[in-house]
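User: Sequence in, structure out. Go.
Assistant: Echoing your sequence, followed by the structure tokens.
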Amino acid sequence: MQVSVESPTKLQRRLTVTVPVEQMDAAFNKRLTQLAKTAKVKGFRPGNVPMTHIKQLYGDAARQEALSEVIQSSLYAAITQEKLNLVGVPTVEPKNITPGQSIEYIATFEVLPEIEGVKFAAKDIEKQVATISDTDVDKVIDRLIEQYITWKEVSRPAQEKDQVVIDFRGSIDGKVFPGGEAHDYPIIIGSKTMIPGFEDGVIGMKAGDEKTINVTFPSDYFAKEFAGKVAEFVIQARKVSEPQLPTIDEELIKKFGIKSGKMDELRAEIKKNLDREVERVIKAKLKAKIFDLLIDQNQFDVPKALIEQEAKRIHDEMHPHHAGQDHGHSEQEMSGFNDAAKRNVALGLIMGAFIKQHDVKPDKERVQDHIATLSASYENPAEVVKWYSSDKRRMAEVEMLILEDQVTDKLLEGVSIKEKTMGYAELIKNQ
């Protein structure tokens, strides 16, 4: 077998592979022999069909199968021989597949970039920190209470936070559009569940009132045919109700998972959960800054095949009901998928190179501590620990997280950390 390698770009490789005719003939004859053992031909017992008949009946199909097998096996051998780190599926272009002659083909594919010596330099890095206040706990309690709101019908005009039951009919250019009509539809003013401007238009309406409003669909609206268009809505108010908050007593607190029904225990549990969330966000934001520096300081071409794979994974994660298919994304959305994918792939390659360079291995004690922390919030922590420990894939995911932490710690050696204190709401914004 003869192999020549060309490099059209930094990551692309073009292999020209020539396979001796003897190897192709051997594969062809082997396939014919296999077929001869099982072929059913009228007038002959299975296994006793003359080879001339087998060639006549199955020769073309056997040659194609043998050719596919030879190309696959020889390409794998050529890639191994040339010590190439293949990425994605190769494109194979036959040059000569004439029977009785040596097989020649060209395989084109990408390879992993070579990252030698990961660079990282930083004198100081800002670390955002926050502490949980009583007000933060109060806001969580308010949200919990909202789950048990009841509604009392009123005769006054609708205002912020009221629930209004409406009929509406929407049209664009005089035509009612799909999904633009509903009856006895409840909305809560201020919930922002409707098109921007719609809920504002309901403010001031009383039961029995009818009103016509114009609202504009957002330019990034998920249904492209409506994006940026002005719609006219005829709205009829059926009922206006104001919220009735429940009394915070032992019975209600027990519904929040506090068996004792005591407020101080509820507040303590909320604060513990918020502290855990703050710690997670602080770590995530610090990691993001470090990883951004890593990417900026270690520039290289990223394989397109890996970007495409990662963009598909991100898409399917964000749109699980449309996994594996494009359901009409804007150029901005597609650009977002690809940018995020490129960053993820680049970071993964850099991290892999750094881990190999410094021989970083997951700290078993930290892995177990992390699993214990994850399990602590469940009713039966021991069962959760067992659930993680019994599955290699789940353990590998935890180990990868710990490796990230260890890499972060190593990168921060000698770096000055400057803390910036802020409120909880500001810290978690956009998370």
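User: And one key feature?
Assistant: The chain has three domains: 2-111, 150-244, 259-428.
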